[in-house]
Write a structure and sequence with these properties.
The complex is a heterodimer of chains A (about 110) and B (about 110).
Chain A (H helix, E strand, L loop, with lengths): L2 E3 L3 E5 L4 E8 L6 E6 L6 E6 L3 E5 L2 E6 L4 E6 L8 E8 L5 E3 L3 E6 L1
Parallel strand pairs in A: 2-11
Antiparallel strand pairs in A: 1-3, 3-8, 4-5, 4-9, 6-7, 7-8, 9-10, 9-11
Chain B lengths: L3 E4 L2 E4 L5 E7 L5 E7 L6 E8 L2 E4 L6 E3 L9 E3 L8 E8 L9 E2 L3 E5 L1
Parallel strand pairs in B: 2-11
Antiparallel strand pairs in B: 1-3, 3-8, 4-5, 4-9, 5-6, 7-8, 9-10, 9-11
Classes of the chains: A mainly beta (about 110), B mainly beta (about 110).
């Protein structure tokens, strides 16, 4: 079966760093996406990894290890506006997006 | 500007009624998707289409129907057979078999049964 796991909820402090993990078991692999979703809004694209390693984009970085079926999203210098759900999604062999349930990130002052 | 548009943003339905949610994209994407999201939950796939005049059931297709008569349009009908339709509905599209296949989302439709 296909499965993507991420923590349900995480809490972090403004200005700190947080790492959100995602593990996946899917049929085939064509890339790993991270999306941000604020409450009541549509998800917005953050990052895409298809090769192993770290992709850095400003305060956000995403890491992929295909051999371990593992990815993480790293958020630095946390701001209150980063409070949102973060969704991990795998693009499988049929180019179908398989979504995790999302990690709700709560930022405290 | 290219994008994906859902309408309406809010929709109220009486029990026993069918309602249709609109989704239009001008991104020339082959694939379109409908997801349902309940409070605090992830995205669950209702239907998807990879080509005009063809579509496939997702994980929770019962009580829903779709059509794909045009590449740009993928409307979703929530039928009276759907017993618990109150939810947030998201439409998405992406290109297929290209190197970079980011999915774009519409703004979402919040459906409430009254």
């Amino acid at each position: 079966g296909q499965n993507i796991d991420q923590p349900t909820e995480m809490t972090a402090t403004e200005g700190a760093i947080v790492q959100i993990n995602c593990t996946y078991q899917t049929s085939g692999f064509n890339g790993l996406f991270w999306y941000q979703q604020h409450a009541g809004e549509a998800p917005t694209f953050l990052s895409y990894n298809v090769l192993d390693g770290l992709e850095e984009k400003g305060r956000f970085s995403s890491f992929l290890s295909r051999s371990k079926g593992y990815s993480y999203l790293l958020l630095k210098e946390l701001q209150m506006k980063d409070s949102a759900s973060y969704l991990c999604a795998n693009l499988d062999s049929n180019y179908q997006l398989i979504w995790g349930a999302g990690t709700k990130l709560i930022i405290k002052p | 500007d290219g994008g994906i548009t859902q309408s309406p943003k809010y929709l109220f339905r009486k029990e026993g009624q069918n309602v249709t949610l609109s989704c239009e994209q001008n991104l020339n994407h082959d694939a379109m998707y409908w997801y349902r999201q309940d409070p605090g939950q992830g995205l669950r796939l209702i239907y998807y289409s990879q080509i005009v005049n063809d579509f496939q059931k997702g994980d929770i297709a019962e009580g829903y129907s779709v059509s794909r008569e045009k590449k740009e349009s993928f409307p979703l009908t929530v039928t009276s057979a759907q017993k618990n339709p109150t939810a947030f509905y998201l439409c998405a599209s992406n290109g297929l078999r290209t190197l970079y296949t980011e999915a774009f989302f519409g703004q979402g439709t919040r459906l409430t049964v009254v």
